[in-house]
Amino acid sequence: IPRTDERRVGSCYEDEIPQTPVTLVSVEGLASLQNLIKQDAHTLDDASNKRLERHVQKLAYAAQISFAERALLYDQNQMLTRMNNEAKVRKSTKSVVLGKAKVMSFEDNKLARVARATKDAMKGKGKRGRKRK
Predict the structure, then answer these.
(1) This protein's superkingdom (predicted)?
(2) Which residues contact 113 (CB under 8 A, 6 or more apart)?
């Protein structure tokens, strides 16, 4: 039996330090937050409870759409980056002109390559300095 000058006092809601919520980065995290809000909403009266649930549902739906759009945009951005990198490789590759535009057989193509190689070897190093466009 406790005496009148001693009382057991539990922690009051005002004394508790609320935990800072973690920033959500996935749909699963958002769904778990929605479930927590629904559990907390059961302590309210009927009118405010229904209103709160309706607002929470709107928030959850909007956030799910936002995460889905972000994922789609990220995938599209990755695809465009890969395409851009492929284009850079094609642009940086030097093209070698073998001859005039005409239909050539494989043997003619080999002869043109040999002729081009000998022509380049005879030409030498070329001029020094900056290349003009």
Answers:
(1) Eukaryota
(2) 98
